[in-house]
Amino acid sequence: MRLLRLFAILPLLMSPHVIRAAEVPPASGSTAPAPAVTIVAAADREIVEQAVVTGTLVPRDEILVAPEIEGYRITELLVEEGAEVEKGQVLARLSLEMIATQEAANVAAIAKAQAAIVQARSQIVQSEAAQIEANLSLERARSLVKTGNATAAVLEQRVSAAQGGEGRLAAAKGGLQLAEADLAAARAQSNEIALRRARTDIKAPDGGIVSRRTARIGAAATSTGEPLFRLIARGEIELEGEVPETWMPRIERGNIVRLEADQGRIVTGKVRRIDPEIDRLTRLGKIRISLDRDPALRIGAFARGRVEVARRDSVAVPLSAVLYGIDGSALVYVVEDGTVEARKVVSGLAADGFMEIREGLKSGEAVVARASSFLRHGDRVRPVQPKAEAAASVTSR
């Protein structure tokens, strides 16, 4: 049956029309179409490279206020947390009961010392008079002994009396010195008590903002443990931030920082200090950022911002348009008249999805928006604009 069918179609296959159709070559214009690629134009652009910094708001300098005298009860608290205080302003007062008792005792000690001085001086006057009289009696006794009108025993009595007078005079002078020393000690104690009285007023060592108040009325003031007040010195708050170690060598003192605050507010500042150490575990470095004065800032709050590392006006292309080789070299695919040129370039700063091209590309040249290793130098392509640009051109028409 199959042989019969084969013999039936064989004459048709041998027909001259079929032979001529098989010999016709394919049409010369039937080549594969060029692939479509999206292109973008290199353009001058300001590139601002920024490092992300995160951290906690802290006081630049914190003042710890503790009592300089201990054991006295707190009787008054004059400031609340959040209050702005000046240098020397009284923050709290301590009890004066013990001070008043010490002052009364000191007044009595001074009066006693002054009375002792008066008494010692009087004794000196009396001792000096007695000494003069004893010396005169001694001289008379010596004269009488020479003339034979007095015995040696009388002379010895006069000598003993004169020596006793000298001793009493010396004792009186010593009593005066002791009384004067007691007076000096009492006056020194008076100064000490006055200093204690002054220290019952607990004052701010410097101006600032009260960040914490642990003092309580009735509690005994002590310099150990928690301070009575914590102050933000001069009201200056800064960010103690952390930055990846790869950015640390590029950050310098004075770099501008922009922090994101509540409700979209931006707080600006500058890098004040760069720590020389990198954390071994987190691989993060620490920097201190001084911030502009803002009453809304709260210490202890988390903050995030960006440190401006570099800023330049240069030719830029999207990051996706740059392809990096194994050796680290960068290239872009420039499209001109539908032909691809693989061109090596020198890249620079990168920010906001764009890459700075420092060498090898001019503003206005078209490059492939998404560089791919599938493209080759000399390939033919069909360039198309990005959808956003195409829509914009349609709208403009």
Total strand segments:
20
Strand order of the largest sheet: 2-10-13-12-11-14
Q: What is the makeup of the main sheet?
A: 6 strands, antiparallel, barrel
Overall pLDDT metric:
81
Q: Helix segment count?
A: 5
Q: What integer value in Å does the Rg equal?
A: 51 Å
Low-confidence stretches: 1-30, 389-397
Given the C-alpha coordinates, what overall shape results?
Answer: rod-shaped
What is the N-to-C succession of helices and strands?
HHEEEEEEHHEEEEEEEEEEEEEEH
Describe it:
This protein is α+β, with helices and mostly antiparallel strands. It contains five helices and 20 strands. The strands form four sheets. Strands 2-10-13-12-11-14 form a six-stranded antiparallel beta barrel. Strands 3-9-8-5 form a four-stranded antiparallel beta sheet, with no helix packed on it. Strands 19-1-20 form a three-stranded mixed beta sheet, with no helix packed on it. Helix 3 packs antiparallel against helix 4. The two termini are 71 Å apart. The relative contact order is 0.19. One of its GO terms (molecular function) is efflux transmembrane transporter activity.
What's this entry about, in short?
It holds the Pfam family Beta-barrel_RND_2. With 397 residues, the chain is an alpha+beta fold. The chain folds into four domains: 36-47 and 313-392, conserved putative lor/sdh protein from methanococcus maripaludis s2 fold; 51-59 and 235-311, Elongation Factor Tu (Ef-tu), domain 3; 64-95 and 201-231, RNA polymerase II/Efflux pump adaptor protein, barrel-sandwich hybrid domain (OB fold (Dihydrolipoamide Acetyltransferase, E2P)); 97-197.
